[in-house]
Design brief:
Number of strands: 10
Order of helices and strands: HEHEHEHEEHEEHEHEHEHHHHHH
Strand content: 5-15%
Bound molecules: beta-L-rhamnopyranose, manganese (II) ion
Structural class: alpha/beta
Length: 403
């Protein structure tokens, strides 16, 4: 005899067990913040400065720590060299630890020097290439001091006109430079190679897509992995497909999350297309790559040009969490059954059910369990920190996209 009441009880128990799994996964999912999100930024037309902006990497770490304090899931700040150049990187690492966070990915910069007009590691002049590689090696020294695991490489290299340089020769130069850096990496260090379709080069970019990045990383070895910046594709590209392929190859190093309406807009992640973010996270969850141990870094790479910066980062972290929560709620067995049965609409419905779930109450409960405010955004606004930095950070030069 079927006891309906009993079944209902079992169902609830099952649901609760599932929610515990979902909550645990969310608690352990870490999001890394970019130091440059806290500095002034803008477009090539105008940088609108904001009061209270950090003057150096130490103050950026203090702001990043605020995001972590209110969200509980953002315990790392990536740095950009030379924007975050300091005299003593070990002290910067210790400062971050005192604030309850750590220094994460070290981002190299081979695009803001006059010498790099025709490229950096792919430049036709061996002297310029040498200079670029020296910078990358210096970044590895910095990783040693901060205890960072990853060196992020993004190259502005490319050409503007057909015939300007030899496409294939530039690839040889790229491979040679990458090899030199790869060989310098420590036991637990990795290099993550980021591709971008175009800009600042408008004809041929040297690392324009995941194919080029992957070919290079495979040739280098296990410590070289690909980074997916969500703003670095042509419109309409199926990014979750790329993510799935890289995960299958064991070559996804991490993400640079942001939103785009047009090109590399660097807007808040989950603002332009929360559904795309969900689809990406579904592939990540499906592959079991959410946890820190998976080696996939979930970084933000954004600029808050017109909105306040710390709240913008908090909002972004919350957006990622919402997408992750929804991806974790996908009825995996139901989906597999529908797929196996060729039930097109049924399978799609399983995914859409998860996406359509309002996960905000779940995330509020989770935060309460973690001793955090239910709404990190409002809690930050009420904290007075924003007013405090405006009053306190007077004088000096506000940080921006310059060394
Ligand atoms: C590039 C790329 C890099 C970022 C710089 C600021 O477009 O996304 O990841 O470090 O911008
Ligand atoms: Mn990026």
């Amino acid at each position: 005899m079927i006891d309906a009441g009993m079944n209902r009880f079992n169902f609830q128990e099952q649901e609760m067990r599932d929610l515990t799994v979902v909550k645990d996964a969310l608690k352990n999912h870490q999001i890394e913040l970019p130091s440059w999100a806290f500095g002034n930024s803008g477009t090539r037309f105008k940088v609108f400065t904001q009061p209270g902006v950090p003057r150096n990497a130490f103050e950026k770490a203090a702001d990043a720590a605020q995001v972590h304090k209110h969200t509980g899931v953002a315990p790392a700040m990536a740095i950009h060299i030379p924007w975050d150049k300091v005299d003593d990187y070990a002290r910067l690492g210790a400062h971050a630890r005192d604030l309850g966070i750590r220094i994460g990915t070290v981002n190299s910069n081979t695009f803001q020097d006059d010498d790099y007009k025709l490229g950096s590691v792919c430049h036709p002049d061996p002297q310029i290439r040498k200079k670029a590689v020296a910078h990358l090696l210096e970044c590895v020294d910095i990783m040693d001091a901060t205890g960072s695991r990853d060196l992020k490489l993004w190259f502005a290299d490319g050409t503007n006109y057909p015939g300007q340089d030899d496409i294939s020769a530039r690839q040889d130069r790229l491979a040679e430079a990458l090899r030199a850096v790869y060989e310098r990496l420590g036991e637990d260090q990795r290099m993550v190679l980021e591709y971008k379709l175009f800009e600042p080069s408008f004809y041929a970019t040297d690392v324009p897509d995941w194919g080029t990045a992957l070919v290079n990383c495979v040739a280098l070895g296990p410590k070289a992995l690909v980074v997916v910046d969500t703003g670095h594709h042509a419109p309409g590209v199926n990014i979750e497909f790329i993510v799935a392929m890289l995960l299958r190859a064991g070559k996804l190093g991490g993400f640079d999350f942001n939103s785009r309406f047009y090109a590399d807009d660097d807007l808040m992640v989950g603002a332009a297309d929360p559904f795309q973010l969900f689809r990406i996270m579904h592939e990540v969850v499906r592959a079991g790559a959410l946890a820190l141990s998976s080696g996939v870094t979930f970084m933000l790479d954004q600029c808050h040009n017109i909105e306040p910066k710390i709240p913008g980062e908090i909002r972004s972290v919350m957006n990622v969490q919402e997408a992750v929560a929804k991806a974790l709620l996908v009825d995996v067995e139901g989906l597999a059954a529908a797929q196996a049965a060729g039930d097109v609409l049924g399978a799609n419905a399983v995914l859409m059910d998860a996406y359509s779930t309002d996960v905000r109450p779940l995330l509020g409960d989770l935060r309460e369990e973690m001793g955090l405010p239910r709404d990190p955004y409002r809690a930050y606004l009420a904290s007075g920190y924003g007013e405090q930095i405006i009053a306190g950070r007077v004088g000096g030069t506000a940080a921006g996209w310059g060394a």
